[in-house]
Amino acid sequence: MTAVHFDSYTEARAHLKALLDAAETGRVATVRRESSTTAMVDVERLRHYLAVVSPSRAQVVSEADGWSIFIPGLPIAADGGTFDEAVTEMIDALREYAEDWQDHLLDASNHRENWGLVQLISLSDDEQLRDWLVGKAR
Predict the structure, then answer these.
(1) What value does the CA radius of gyration of the chain take, rounded to a whole number of Å?
(2) How far apart are CA 31 and CA 34, in angstroms?
(3) Which of 43, 77, 104, 135 sits 20 to 30 Å CA-CA off 14?
(4) With contact defined as beta carbons under 8 Å apart, do 40 and 56 qualify?
(5) What pLDDT, in 10s, does the model give residues 40-50?
(6) CA 32 to chain centroid
(7) Half-sphere exposure of 42 (CA within 13 A, CB side)
(8) Among residues 134, 124, 101, 130, which one has the least CA distance to residue 50?
(9) How much is the pLDDT for 131?
(10) What angle do CA 74, 80, 86 make, to 5 degrees?
(11) What are the backbone dihedrals phi and psi of residue 124, each rounded to the nearest 5 degrees, phi first?
């Protein structure tokens, strides 16, 4: 089977199984509505891709009373008494940022380009975010 394209949401709805099957297997799956086209993508494929092309670049600093983590260029930072506590706090801070972005930052000029990061955060569970932040080998 090749790519799946539907020229209307009515046509896509009538062939939803084919659209979902194409997305799940990694084939191109799109729906056109008026002047816009939307792609359907399997969540895990998209999450994995975003994690690979957007490394966290997180910086960890050991301080006298604990650990700090920040991501250069982003207004996200966290502290903790231990390394693991700081990472857990960073995951919480990332989730808060994603919520704020969805709520009101998506149109702000200095946050608009963080769409991929917000998708990665929203599509990941805590363990996946932990792996993204510090790597799989901990």
Answers:
(1) 19
(2) 10
(3) 43
(4) no
(5) 999 999 999 99
(6) 24
(7) 12
(8) 124
(9) 95
(10) 50
(11) -105, 145
User: From CA 121, how far away is CA 97, in angstroms rounded?
Assistant: 9
Strands 36-39 and 29-33: antiparallel
Nearest to 48 by CA among 120, 115, 136: 120
* Residue 49 identity: Y
Give pTM, 2 decimals: 0.87
Burial degree of 104 (CB within 10 A; 0-12, 13-18, 19+):
exposed
> How long a stretch of residues is the chain?
138
Compute CA distances 115 → 19, 21, 81, 105, whole Å: 24, 26, 31, 10
The token pair at 110 is 């200095």
| Amino acid identity at 62 | S
Rounded distance between C-alpha atoms, residue 8 and residue 131, angstroms? 39
